[in-house]
Design brief:
globular; 124 residues
């Protein structure tokens, strides 16, 4: 069972990663500005898609577990990890865990930026 799940996630992740590359490349060429329109679009679209998939999965059990792995964990995870981040935030809000939600969002953004800057600094 675990091996099948890994295959579903891997297939979805591969498709999502290729889709992300193509969307970012296309939009960056179409709109060559300093604002990273490709990444921004991918993040927003990925959040929208994971919201749709999650809503369908929880509302009427329409998506079998294998398709959830393929679409949510795999495709959306490969397309953008930002979608998983926002889904987790939404789940905390649904559970009315407002302090944890606030800390999670703030710490993720702040420490993520610090980690990125540190990684760049270490490689200079």
């Amino acid at each position: 069972m675990l091996f099948k799940n890994i295959l579903w996630v891997g297939l979805g992740g591969a498709l999502g990663s290729v889709a992300r590359y193509l969307v970012q490349k296309y939009l960056s060429q179409l709109y060559p500005h300093q604002f990273p329109i490709g990444s921004f679009t991918v993040n927003v679209v990925g959040c929208f898609l994971i919201g749709i998939f999650f809503g369908i999965a929880t509302k009427n059990e329409f998506l079998p577990p294998a398709f959830r792995l393929l679409l949510m964990t795999g495709f959306c995870g490969g397309f953008t990890t930002f979608s998983a981040f926002t889904l987790e935030g939404m789940q905390l809000l649904n559970e009315q865990r407002f302090l944890i939600f606030t800390l999670y969002i703030a710490f993720s953004v702040v420490f993520g930026l610090i980690a990125t800057f540190t990684g760049v600094w270490l490689t200079q």
